[in-house]
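Progress against Task 2.4 (sequence-to-structure conversion) is shown through the following example record, which the project officer requested during the mid-term review.
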Amino acid sequence: MNLREKIRELSKSADEWLKVSKEREYLVLGSFVIGVTIIVMNFLLFQGVVQVFTTINILGASLIVGPATIAKYVEYKKSRKIESMFPNFLSDVVSGTQSGMTLTQSIKAASKNEYGPLSPYVKKMASQIDWGIPFDQVLKGIAKELRSKLIDRTVSTIIETHRSGGSISDVLESVSTSVTEVERIKEERKAHVYSQILTGYVIYFVFLGVIIGLQKFLIPTLSFTGVSQFGVPSTKESTGNYNTVFQNLIVIQGLFSGLAIGKMSEGSIMAGLKHVIVFIAIGLTAFVLIL
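Structure tokens generated for the chain above:
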């Protein structure tokens, strides 16, 4: 492949990436505008109807926060996959340098291998090296694009060793071992906190059961006796208010429980978004269907 074909291939990849990025930005912006519009209209039209008002507010808030949160989670998952493949890339580069190739030659050879979502960045590195771009600048640019603390620290170590004239092969081997060990520790931590994850789910479902029990059995009893637990006459409207409060509590509990589980299991709040979605979906569905 000549230089012109390489430039055309990289330009095509850049255009595709920018297109996806732009579409994601438009989706997030559009959902934000729609969500704000729904909430504003809700305050103007349905403020007096408590249940409808609360439901529409939840819908509007979901449109405002949901797409942006999902986009961040997709980016987080991609970053985790890249980090998991990075030790394989380093291992291949080490094998190349140990066989007598220079670092740049080893990276070019590694670019022919498959590393999942990391592959386009490795090929870009090899092409930039072919163009004569300084090696340090290439690594810094890739680290900046990947936006991973793990890869950024690794790249900094490689650059400093390359500048000081140290043994690149030994450093890469040590870095590869360290990165692999970090990934192993993450997996071990995830396995060790599995019981805590189960505990978090049990606590949420117990909370959900208590809320449903209060709304289905206690609140109708208070309404029948005509007096609420605070000594205030209980009416159908106040019973509906309890329903709204309990729905909000289910959402709040699901949100913070899910984020806490993600932080414990994977060390990132973004990892808890899948738990948040499960909690809120199950909680609201069970609350609506049972009652």
